[in-house]
């Protein structure tokens, strides 16, 4: 392939370098476009625009490939654990046993959240959506940890990373405890990160809390599968906010808000709401399958299809097995989950879905697992955020260390040309 691209405007030719990534992805570098031609490009939704070069995650939607730092998602989900994957994403290499121990110890150092944060939670209405509360609390961490705001060296950055990993998990579960009217729990530094999540959520002062290790392993896998997905909406938001040198907490808080939307992380909640609606209306999965295929009907089967994965979502394959394991371990008998199974089987054999490559995506199965674990639907996106946290941190860190310029897109102005101001009385 040639290493330049030629653009012709008004009969004049301009040459731009072509950049080729590790996996032969091709990009035209238009850094000098405006300076040389006076023109800009326009690409709403950034469907054709790379915002950065990144060494963190590789994704090929056509081939169903997802890799973190070169390791396949299948290998990581099978052989690693969430904290090890977090280290890999954030620091670039798999940790030695000593590195991992140090990382875990440093996270544990920061698992206590300032008691005054409880006053902030008390200010929210009891039924506030947990994602809104989580975004606010994450932002509030800035006020309680001012040293982590303006990181000027790698040591300060490392501390900010460990603080975020330690405190975010705790405040994420507090949004649920507040909603339930339960006392807020503390992280238990003698237990693992994912086990702590379940304890922080569900352990009550009134009795012992037991949890099957199979459940912890399934959740651990789920967090690994969600840990990064290159330049998606929330991650791009984190990088954009961080590019102004806003601190890590503020950048992550913005990422939480971006993830909340139903077109992004909010889809896992939408899947369960759809299943509950099907149940309420008689549980006829075939009827809803027919509705999804009817072009006159706006209904879509939530949890099916993906913008990037047009063959299969490699995460969905892994998560389907985890969902089956969890359901078998818990022996749940839930009519909503029975509908999910029926829908999945029917859609996978249906010509409409087969011919359009519409397979269940990660949100379809994650919702099923969360429901089986007794996690309320409104908390589903919070779990996505916990899983995505190391990815956001890794991307923010890469952006800062690469000294990327402030994110500031341009626009094509289509409003009114210059006009004269008219005083109110003359309008
Ligand atoms: N149910 C029924 N038909 C569907 C569905 C669905 N879930 N998804 C796509 N189709 C059909 C479309 O109607 C279209 O049919 P046509 O070719 O006859 O017109 C064809 O499949 C292609 O669909 P597009 O909308 O062009 O696909 P796109 O890539 O734009 O959309 C999306 C992907 C948004 C994920 C879509 O499949 C969808 O809405 N799915 C349901 C919502 C969902 O599960 N979102 C979570 C995504 S995963 C994540 O964000 C973590």
UniProtKB/TrEMBL annotation:
The keyword RNA-binding does not apply. It catalyses: oxaloacetate + acetyl-CoA + H2O = citrate + CoA + H(+). GO terms for biological process: tricarboxylic acid cycle. Keywords: Acyltransferase, Transferase, Tricarboxylic acid cycle. GO terms for cellular component: cytoplasm. The active site is at residues 306, 363. InterPro entries: Citrate_synth-like_lrg_a-sub (IPR016142), Citrate_synth-like_sm_a-sub (IPR016143), Citrate_synthase (IPR002020), Citrate_synthase_AS (IPR019810), Citrate_synthase_bac-typ (IPR024176), Citrate_synthase_sf (IPR036969), Citrate_synthase_typ-I (IPR010953). Pathway: Carbohydrate metabolism; tricarboxylic acid cycle; isocitrate from oxaloacetate: step 1/2. Signal peptide: none annotated. SUPFAM superfamilies: Citrate synthase. The keyword Acyltransferase applies. One of its GO terms (molecular function) is citrate synthase activity. PANTHER family: CITRATE SYNTHASE. Belongs to the citrate synthase family. NCBIfam families: cit_synth_I, PRK05614.1. This is Citrate synthase. The lineage of its organism: Bacteria, Pseudomonadati, Bacteroidota, Flavobacteriia, Flavobacteriales.
């Amino acid at each position: 392939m040639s290493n330049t691209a030629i653009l012709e405007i008004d009969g004049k030719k301009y040459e731009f370098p072509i950049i080729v990534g590790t996996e032969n992805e091709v990009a035209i570098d238009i850094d000098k476009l405006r300076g040389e031609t006076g023109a800009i490009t326009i690409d709403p939704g950034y469907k054709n625009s790379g915002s950065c070069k990144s060494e963190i995650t590789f994704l090929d939607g056509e081939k169903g490939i997802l890799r973190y730092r070169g390791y396949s998602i299948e290998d990581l989900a099978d052989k690693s654990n969430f904290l090890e994957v977090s280290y890999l994403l954030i620091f670039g290499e798999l940790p030695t046993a000593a590195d991992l121990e140090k990382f875990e110890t440093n996270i544990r150092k920061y698992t206590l959240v300032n008691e005054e944060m409880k006053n902030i939670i008390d200010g929210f209405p009891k039924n506030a959506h947990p994602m809104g509360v989580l975004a606010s609390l994450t932002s509030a961490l800035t006020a309680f940890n001012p040293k982590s705001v303006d990181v000027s060296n790698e040591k300060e950055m490392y501390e900010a990373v460990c603080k975020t990993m330690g405190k975010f998990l705790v405040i994420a579960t507090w949004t649920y405890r507040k909603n339930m009217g339960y006392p807020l729990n503390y992280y238990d530094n003698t237990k693992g990160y994912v086990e702590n999540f379940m304890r922080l959520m569900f352990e009550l002062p009134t009795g012992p809390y037991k949890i099957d290790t199979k459940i912890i392993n399934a959740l651990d896998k789920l967090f690994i599968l969600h840990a990064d997905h290159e330049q998606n909406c929330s991650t791009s938001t984190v990088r954009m906010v961080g590019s102004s040198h806003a601190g890590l907490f503020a950048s992550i808080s913005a990422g939480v808000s971006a993830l909340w939307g139903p077109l992004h992380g909010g889809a896992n909640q939408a899947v369960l709401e759809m299943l509950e609606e099907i149940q309420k209306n008689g549980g006829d999965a075939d009827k809803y399958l027919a509705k999804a295929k009817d072009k006159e009907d706006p209904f879509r089967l939530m949890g099916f299809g993906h913008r990037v994965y047009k063959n299969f979502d490699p995460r969905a394959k892994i998560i389907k097995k985890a969902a089956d394991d969890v359901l078998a371990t818990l022996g749940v008998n839930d009519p909503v989950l029975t509908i999910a199974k029926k829908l999945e089987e029917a859609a996978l054999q249906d010509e409409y879905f087969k011919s359009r490559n519409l397979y269940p995506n990660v949100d379809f199965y994650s919702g099923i697992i969360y429901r089986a674990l007794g996690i309320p639907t409104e908390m589903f996106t919070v779990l996505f955020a916990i899983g995505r946290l190391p990815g956001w941190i890794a991307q923010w860190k890469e952006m800062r260390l690469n000294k990327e310029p402030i994110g500031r897109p341009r626009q094509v102005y289509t409003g009114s040309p210059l006009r004269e101001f008219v005083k109110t009385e003359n309008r």
